[in-house]
Amino acid sequence: MLPAAMRPHLSAIYAFAATIAAVAECRSMRAAERLTGIQAWQSRLHAAVDVERSGRAPDPHEDAAVVALAHSIRSLDLPMPLLDDLVSAFGEDTMTTRYASWAELFDYCRRAAQPLGRLLLRVAGYRESAIDESSDALCTALRLTACWRAFGDDWVVGRLYVPRDVSAACRAREMDLDAPFLNESWAAAIRQCVDQTRAQFEAGRDVCDALAGGMRRERRWTWLRGMRLLDAVERAGPTLKARRPAIGVRDMPALLWSAARWPPPAS
């Protein structure tokens, strides 16, 4: 469990992120409208931070999540570029449906996932570059796992995260995704994606040991759950498009056992 003093700040961060995510995923709005809406929330946050730093009372009509986050940014000196990167990734979600290469997808993860990990570290008082780098890898692994897990759901709305250079190397064609199950070419592409994601998890193990107390336990549990979910994605194989892999009560004994005998063996 995370320290009580951290929770209001993390709640403010996650509430703001959830608000923007809801705009990004609102299918009743056109993509350009969603992007404009996201940028408006970004402007509101910047304005609220300016008010907070000036010592003036917050606008009584401003959203509570924005006011709370502005207070956290000022009181903990949280880096605004991390939040701007996060906003830009949500904006990308509204306009981008394909990635040409791992470089492009990793840049998306740099903005969509890594800022949340670094903000968690800043709230906890950690600012070491080595810890940041390991956290970045873990957060990238978690985001990629979420992408592969939602492969079928994303395809329904026209989104595909598998980099085109991977699908091309495996001779996986988009027209074949109209079938209910993945053919061997797409199954091979997913295996490559899982392997790349597993490498990111391995690079993200250090942060789980570098932190103390509740933060250490939380990061280890997050790592174990993420790896367990990635294993479920891998087991899904050709059925990945038809069903969304998940972990549940049946996975708890194995997760608890793995947590008790940390560190996990290297892959």
Which properties best describe this structure?
single chain; 267 residues; mainly alpha; Farnesyl Diphosphate Synthase; 13 helices; 0% strand; globular
Notes on the protein architecture:
The model has no long low-confidence stretch (mean pLDDT 95). The protein has two domains: 1-95, no CATH class; 98-267, Farnesyl Diphosphate Synthase (Orthogonal Bundle), CATH 1.10.600. It is built from 13 helices and no strands. The chain has helices spanning 7-24, 31-54, 64-76, 80-95, 102-112, 114-124, 129-149, 151-156, 164-169, 184-203, 206-210, 213-236, 252-260. The chain is globular and about 60 Å long. With 267 residues, the chain is mostly helical.
Topology readout:
Elements: H1 7-24, H2 31-54, H3 64-76, H4 80-95, H5 102-112, H6 114-124, H7 129-149, H8 151-156, H9 164-169, H10 184-203, H11 206-210, H12 213-236, H13 252-260
Helix pairs in contact: 1-3, 1-4, 1-6, 2-3, 2-4, 4-5, 4-6, 5-7, 6-7, 7-10, 7-12, 10-12
- Mean pLDDT over the full residue set: 95
| Low-confidence runs | none
Number of strands: 0
The termini sit apart by: 28 Å
Q: Would you tell me which CATH topology of the largest domain applies?
A: Farnesyl Diphosphate Synthase
Radius of gyration from CA coordinates: 20 Å
Major sheet:
none
Query: What string, H for helix and E for strand, traces the elements in order?
Result: HHHHHHHHHHHHH
* Percent of residues in beta strands: under 5%
| Number of H- or I-type helical stretches | 13
CATH architecture of the largest domain: Orthogonal Bundle
